[in-house]
């Protein structure tokens, strides 16, 4: 395996407090808006994917993916 | 028997709670150093006030005696003393408040971009840790559960109710973001020597930043009552060099 890259989601001035719930949710939505606009394979969206994966608990991502498939995702997409 | 006691004390880890411990554990982060310093600062004023109040109290009890003063003085008003006893305590409070707020806000502040995000998820009654910075899909690759080692499985030198099977490995001298949340009831992720106590609330993710200044093993416990086995979900943080952290991540399973 190649050397790992030490890099994570940067501090975001929109979410300056200890509560980062929205930070994770926003990054998740940003990624899916990005792929909707630029297409699934677009490299520009990958950083958002990295951000939300770093910030969101895996269980949340799983649930949201499921909800998107079922069409009952609670956020703006 | 007593020899065993002393032997145990000498091999007990420095960054864990010790029997009959009264003070803080050794600081491993600037945050904990700040907390310890603030505690000592405030204790200076505390001792000052304690001695003064005790002196006043004992003096009053000693002098207000029916034999010495058969007719007591009834002073109900004194402008000078009233001004003094209002202004002096406010000045003392100010001397306590300023360093206290300075510390509080510096703990909240995320000054630099963190290098690594580690997610600590509380469960009844174990912890899950997720390192997702290196994922290339939504599939979790570096995730593990951390269970306490039960009393029967302890090896010599391991601490009861503190040791776990899988430790949180993180690099020293690096700015880290801890994302703390829970999957069931509220828990708390607390490591005293790193000065961190972060509530794990289901449905909410709390962030706290750590920068461990020295390599070592740090012990903490769940600090929010969460049910029967609340005492059996400790936290063990192992701070290693960045090089060792890199190889730990690469060699993970
Ligand atoms: Cu707990």
UniProtKB/TrEMBL annotation, chain A:
CDD domains: Cyt_c_Oxidase_VIb
Cited Gene3D superfamilies: Cytochrome c oxidase, subunit VIb
Pfam families the UniProt entry points to: COX6B
One Gene Ontology cellular component: respiratory chain complex IV
Keywords recorded for this protein, A-Z: Disulfide bond, Mitochondrion
Coiled coil region boundaries: none
Cystine pairings recorded for this chain: 24-56, 34-45
Subcellular location(s) of the protein: Mitochondrion
InterPro entries assigned: COX6B-like, CX6/COA6-like_sf, Cyt_c_oxidase_su6B
Purpose of the protein: Component of the cytochrome c oxidase, the last enzyme in the mitochondrial electron transport chain which drives oxidative phosphorylation.
Homology family: Belongs to the cytochrome c oxidase subunit 6B.
Protein name: Cytochrome c oxidase subunit
Species annotation: Acorus calamus (Sweet flag)
Taxonomic lineage of the native organism: Eukaryota, Viridiplantae, Streptophyta, Embryophyta, Tracheophyta
From TrEMBL, chain B:
Coiled-coil portions: none
Pfam families: COX2 (PF00116), COX2_TM (PF02790)
PROSITE patterns with a match to the protein in the record: COX2, COX2_CUA, COX2_TM
Major site of localization recorded for this protein: mitochondrion
Transmembrane spans: 42-62, 83-105
Cofactor: Cu cation
Molecular functions (GO terms): copper ion binding; cytochrome-c oxidase activity; oxidoreductase activity
GO cellular component terms listed in the entry, alphabetical order: catalytic complex; mitochondrial inner membrane; transmembrane transporter complex
Function of the molecule: Component of the cytochrome c oxidase, the last enzyme in the mitochondrial electron transport chain which drives oxidative phosphorylation. The respiratory chain contains 3 multisubunit complexes succinate dehydrogenase (complex II, CII), ubiquinol-cytochrome c oxidoreductase (cytochrome b-c1 complex, complex III, CIII) and cytochrome c oxidase (complex IV, CIV), that cooperate to transfer electrons derived from NADH and succinate to molecular oxygen, creating an electrochemical gradient over the inner membrane that drives transmembrane transport and the ATP synthase.
NCBIfam families per the UniProt record, alphabetical: CoxB
Name this protein carries in UniProt: Cytochrome c oxidase subunit 2
């Amino acid at each position: 395996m190649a050397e790992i890259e030490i890099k994570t989601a940067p501090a975001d001035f929109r979410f300056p407090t200890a509560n980062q719930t929205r930070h994770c949710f926003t990054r998740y939505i940003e990624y899916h808006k990005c792929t909707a606009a630029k297409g699934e394979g677009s490299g520009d969206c990958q950083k958002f994917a990295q951000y939300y994966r770093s910030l969101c608990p895996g269980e949340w991502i799983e649930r949201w993916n499921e909800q998107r498939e079922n069409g009952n995702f609670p956020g703006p997409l | 028997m007593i020899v065993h006691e002393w032997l145990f004390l000498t091999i007990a880890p420095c960054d864990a709670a010790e029997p009959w411990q009264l003070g803080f554990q050794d600081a491993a982060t600037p945050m904990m150093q700040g907390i310890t310093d603030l505690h000592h600062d405030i204790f200076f004023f505390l001792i000052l006030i304690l001695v003064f109040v005790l002196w006043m109290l004992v003096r009053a009890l000693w002098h207000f005696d029916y034999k010495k003063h058969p007719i007591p003085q009834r002073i109900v008003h004194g402008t000078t003393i009233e001004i003094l006893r209002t202004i002096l305590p406010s000045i003392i409070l100010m001397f306590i408040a300023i360093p206290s707020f300075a510390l509080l806000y510096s703990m909240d502040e995320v000054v630099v971009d963190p290098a690594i995000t580690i997610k600590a998820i509380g469960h009844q009654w174990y912890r899950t840790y997720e390192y997702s910075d290196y994922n290339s899909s939504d599939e979790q690759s570096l995730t593990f559960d951390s269970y306490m080692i039960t009393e029967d499985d302890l090896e010599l030198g391991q601490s009861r109710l503190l040791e776990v099977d899988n430790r949180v490995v993180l690099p020293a001298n690096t700015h880290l973001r801890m994302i703390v949340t829970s999957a069931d009831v509220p828990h708390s992720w607390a490591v005293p020597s790193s000065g961190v106590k972060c509530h794990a609330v289901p449905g909410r993710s709390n962030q706290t930043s750590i920068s461990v200044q020295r390599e070592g093993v740090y012990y903490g416990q769940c600090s929010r009552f969460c049910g029967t086995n609340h005492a059996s979900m400790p936290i063990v943080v192992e701070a290693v060099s960045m090089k060792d952290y890199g190889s730990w991540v690469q060699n993970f399973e």
